[in-house]
Write a structure and sequence with these properties.
The protein has about 270 residues and is an alpha+beta fold. It has 2 helices and 12 strands. The C terminus is likely disordered.
Length: about 270
């Protein structure tokens, strides 16, 4: 605002001086020189002010243009990041689905793939909800697996959804055996996210690192499916059984897709709640 007022004053003074000198232009050369001497500084200052104002105006439009371009680039970058993230998710999903498909080819059972859409929020129960139900052929008691190992068993079914009790739940029970020695026992869930291998006789040789697989004798899970590996063995002096801790192969916190076995062994045993 101050620059505008100063510019107007300088232009007014410049016009007045030019008017006076133009009237006396023919009077003498000395008067013309005096006029030029008086006018020139004002003209120079006015010219500088005009150039300065023009530069500020141009700079303002340049900054506005740059700001708009920057906003457009940010929006384009956000779209690119989102698209890249979607591509990564699709790629990871394809990898998991390929593993499920390859697993299905290895076992002579009929499978139904399902997506995990919910988890039990209670710390006392370990279960998940899948997006397949009665209309898809799912029944209560069917086993649920993934390539890494046994996940659990269907315990409740609605038209389009099912509830699966995970093997780390304390109410779960799976008949298993040690792959190396064929010693049998029952896998029970534990609150810490591990499992206990119960009813294993003290005389059986069980070591840390031994692989635990399904025995197929419970009529639920096909024989030979992986469950976990032995992480601890306690063989007390008293008693006929030894205490065996098993870590599941499945990371249940990252469970996203599962396979429901639609034709399990005969005499399916349904776990009771």
């Amino acid at each position: 605002m101050v620059l505008v007022v100063c510019g107007i004053i300088l232009i007014a003074v410049n016009i007045i001086i030019l008017s006076v000198t133009s009237k006396n232009r023919n009077s003498s050369n000395s008067t013309g020189r005096i006029g030029i001497t008086l006018v020139a500084p004002f003209q120079e200052v006015a010219a500088h002010l005009l150039r300065f104002a023009e530069d500020i105006w141009n700079q303002y439009f340049f900054l506005v243009s740059v700001a708009e371009e920057n906003a457009d680039l940010k929006r384009a970058l956000s779209r690119a990041i989102e698209k890249n993230n979607q591509c990564k998710e699709i790629s990871l999903s394809n990898i998991r689905l390929r593993k499920l498909l390859n697993f299905q080819k290895k076992i002579a059972n009929k499978f139904l793939s399902a997506e995990v859409i919910g988890k039990d929020p209670s710390p006392w129960f370990k279960s998940i909800i899948i997006d397949k139900g009665q209309y898809d052929g799912v029944k209560k008691g069917l086993p649920v697996v993934i390539p890494e190992g046994i996940a659990g068993q269907v315990i409740d079914v609605s038209a389009h959804y099912s509830k699966v009790l995970l093997i780390i739940d304390q109410n779960s029970a799976v008949d298993v055996m040690i792959q190396r020695t064929r010693a049998r026992g029952i896998i029970k869930g534990e609150s810490k996210g591990q499992c206990l291998l119960k009813y294993v006789l003290r005389k059986h040789d069980i070591r840390v690192g031994d692989v635990v697989v399904s025995s197929g004798l419970d009529g639920v899970f096909p024989k030979g499916l992986r469950v976990g590996y032995v992480s601890g063995v306690i063989r007390r002096n008293a008693g006929i059984f030894q205490e065996v801790t098993v870590n599941p192969y499945i990371d249940f916190e990252k469970l996203e897709e599962v396979l429901v076995i639609l034709n399990p062994p005969k005499h399916v045993f349904v776990s009771k709640q």
